[in-house]
Amino acid sequence: MIVVLTGAPGAGKGTQADLLAENHRFRKVSTGDALRKHVREQTEIGLKAKSFMDAGELVPDDILLKIIQEEVGKNPEETVILDGYPRNLEQLKALEELDTEHDIAGVIHLHVKEDELVERLTGRRVCPNCTATYHMSFNPPKVAGKCDKCGQSEIIQRSDDKEEKIRHRLKVYANQTAPVIRHYENSDQYQQVDGSVEMAAVTASLAKAIEALDASRAS
Q1: Hey, which residues are catalytic here?
Q2: What is the pTM (predicted TM-score) of this model?
Q3: In the sheet where 27-30 sits, what is the strand order?
Q4: Range of the structural domain that residue 58 is part of
């Protein structure tokens, strides 16, 4: 089955999807990760996507859908955590019509208040060499300004982690992705999890929410 994990930028979707894959044997499918893989491997899909990315344009929905179809796989017994897709109602409709062995069990909304999201994202720093992520308040590097993992680079703040751009991203999310949540929230295909508590507690709550969606699907 497919479980859509959604939430605003900074809610922790990617981190939590990784923890669920590691600790609960679910499989994470991230459109961002998959897109970078296809570009790196220069697949047919990757080359098409790169042409749009190099031009500074969004990758079209039909290309993203092909990536999703390939990455989801053919084993209907596994639980796929879909991170980063769908981002709007048009993508949701395409996903629901996707020819796959999996069905969509529902959506889990990882909820965090806006002020906390801004605090999380403005404090985030990344290593440009190995992509390790830090936070100046919650997870600073052992040596100020230096990446712990590779030790080769000064950590930096991404340009889209400036407050003005974060507020804009949150507005885009409210306009485009929040309707996906509203599509499900009054049904038994919807679960909400508080993403502002301790990380392990969030992971445990997400695992329970996935179990609830599976039980609802089976009944």
Answers
A1: 13, 87, 124, 158, 169
A2: 0.83
A3: 27-30, 80-83, 2-6, 104-111, 190-194
A4: 2-112+174-218
